Amino acid sequence: MKCDIITIGDELLIGQVVDTNSAAMAQMLARIGVDVHEKITIGDTREQIVSTLRSVSAEADLVLLTGGLGPTRDDITKSTLAEYWHDNLVRDEASYRNVERFLAERHLEMNALNERQAWVPSRAEVLPNACGSAPGMWYEQDGVVYVSMPGVPHEMSRMMQQEVLPRIVSRLVTQRIVHRTLVLAGIPESRLALVLSAWEDQLPANMKLAYLPDAGVLRLRLTAKGSKDEPVEEAAEAQLAKLRPLLESYLLGEDVQRLEEIVGLHLLAHHAMLATAESCTGGNVARRITSVPGSSRYFAGSVVAYSNRVKTEVLHVSPETLEMHGAVSRETVLEMAAGVRQLLQTGYAVAISGIAGPDGGTPDKPVGTVWIAAASPEDIVARCFHFPPDLDRQSIVERASNEALRMLLGVMPQH
Amino acid sequence: MKCDIITIGDELLIGQVVDTNSAAMAQMLARIGVDVHEKITIGDTREQIVSTLRSVSAEADLVLLTGGLGPTRDDITKSTLAEYWHDNLVRDEASYRNVERFLAERHLEMNALNERQAWVPSRAEVLPNACGSAPGMWYEQDGVVYVSMPGVPHEMSRMMQQEVLPRIVSRLVTQRIVHRTLVLAGIPESRLALVLSAWEDQLPANMKLAYLPDAGVLRLRLTAKGSKDEPVEEAAEAQLAKLRPLLESYLLGEDVQRLEEIVGLHLLAHHAMLATAESCTGGNVARRITSVPGSSRYFAGSVVAYSNRVKTEVLHVSPETLEMHGAVSRETVLEMAAGVRQLLQTGYAVAISGIAGPDGGTPDKPVGTVWIAAASPEDIVARCFHFPPDLDRQSIVERASNEALRMLLGVMPQH
């Protein structure tokens, strides 16, 4: 089955909004064994929507569209689709009641623009929108299935899960695709590729390995394909069993996407609590840890000590340390980690202080210099990182956050 | 000029990595007046790269590609491009020295895979990579310009700025595009659309308004186009002068993308410092504020009080308050805001406590219930938000963060 995704919106084309929808949709589709063949982003113009539909329908079996279903006049997806399908719009009563309910909950009145949202092409199977006012549409024409969904990420996400995926599974899927992911750190991509060369050579034709380096962490993704009744999972696992010994201690975790999930699993296993003391990362490590549901079971909190005053008064870093060694130093992060562990009464702590730029660098400590300390009940270690000065602020914060999470894993038992 | 972007990588197609490159490139292109016509994401297969190049070259004048230039065997963009252009690969000495330098800085040795990175199609104009080992390529063939860049975001970004944009401006650009953005809150999209209907009707044909709602904040984007010597900026500003009076107090800022930038500008103007006390947002407000360069001039820090112990011991919320009213209550966030203001000695503070889910909700306080307090030197206010229970954890955190920043603006003079 060939599946294409079309995301519609001028804001995506000019880069004002990053398209997260197509990645979220692709992840959900991967889980039910549907491979996305192509993703296309186009603007809110009738001509472009029609010409893109024409070109993808020649090859695709399933076309998922998001965006352009809102009430304002730049939203033209629905009327363009009706025209493309040679269909006319009719008012759908269930959708009308949903718009009424949606507006009532928000203490808003119905107007002509909202009312238009309840109109759908006459032959469409209407997909209810549980969190918004624009209904989705499932449409079959000339052997191609079209699904049109709202562009608001959580509305699309809910509609995919509740309405679209079940229909795809029961009506369209015949193939199985299995993705397995290994998370590594500490070995460069090109060196690992040489180590794995012989193993890659012997992979069967229905499997493929990809290297995904990102801010100091390397993910390996093994993809295996087969028909619905082949033992694809087992075959992939058999290959991984041969792969694991080659990865030695570089392997941090499997089938989790993110370091913060691995850290969380370890803390849970050790019944331990964590605190963070952050300067240059500005709360990013805390945000990543708390983005995992259930993190309150192992995360006490954080002190974001952006000013030196907070470092001394709240974390009890000694003014002499700051004076003699500076805020970006081994001594300061060791005292920050010890201070936050003491203050928040946790077993584990991590502290980060550095220069994320673009300003604030000195010849001695250029932009990209970051000190990190990690503390366990038994141990405390500190390390200096020199991230390439050509990285931007956000990249330095992300890399420092990754290294902080890795150092935490390093002071935990079994690592 | 028609510009297409092609991003290449299986990790993008299966949604393992969100494609931020195409948005970043589109933003940079918009600034020099280049409109992106279409963005296409495809996998790392020779057939797909070739067929996509064939189909876009029929219409596009400029094709920007990212990805697939790494050293491992899943990276096939360069060899496929050479084949598509009927060219052969030759070793580029400057690129070879750059690979040597890159590896030496990282204390790595050259191997056969790295060495391959210095080979480029013989007729390509080589674009040096200032932060990585893979060179970029500028290639002109049959009236179409192709630019191939690495997929690593900061490598692509630097190469765009230093090598690609200057060449586009001097060799290709003839048109001007101006984007102006207004940030609003407090009015629903459909109501505003009715208010602006007459103004939209009188817009000249070269201008277009788009509505971009996102987590409680609404951005309006006016796009104006013209030739290089038309007064496009002035014409757009003349339209905005008519628009502003219609927006009343809903208008929060202009030509900034993000609420945290607006908050930062106000704090700077008032020579004031800010602190945050965060429970359910887990440091996200601090992270957003510190993502703005120079934020150390107005941001002291944050206490992420995930556990109740931290609320009482560090922020001095009284145990009786927690006992009587609960952690998610008016009384608690008022004490959190007062506590963090006192602790970090700032004029302004914001405190957030709520239930981000998926667990932790009660009939009384379901998932999505969030209390927020904002304090200025003169005033302190608290408000309860009930975000729709169908939102996911991340969406609730983002909405609560937006509301916290808006409430901060509300307690500042002039708002």
Describe this structure in words.
The structure is a homodimer of 415-residue chains. The first copy, chain A, is α/β, with parallel strands linked by helices and 415 residues long. The first copy, chain A, has 3 domains: 169 residues, Molybdenum Cofactor Biosythetic Enzyme, Chain A (3-Layer(aba) Sandwich), CATH 3.40.980.10; 80 residues, Alpha-Beta Plaits (2-Layer Sandwich), CATH 3.30.70; 152 residues, CinA-like (Maf protein, Alpha-Beta Complex). Helix content of chain A is 40%, strand content 26%. Chain A is built from 16 helices and 17 strands. Chain A has a 6-stranded mixed sheet, sandwiched between helices. Chain A has a 5-stranded mixed sheet with strand order 14-13-15-16-17, sandwiched between helices. In chain A, β6 and β7 form a beta hairpin. In chain A, α11 packs parallel to α16. The longest helix of chain A has 19 residues. Chain A is globular and about 75 Å long. Chain A starts with a strand and ends in a 5-residue tail after the last helix. At the A-B interface, α1, α2, β2, α3 and α6 of A face α1, α2, β2, α3 and α6 of B.
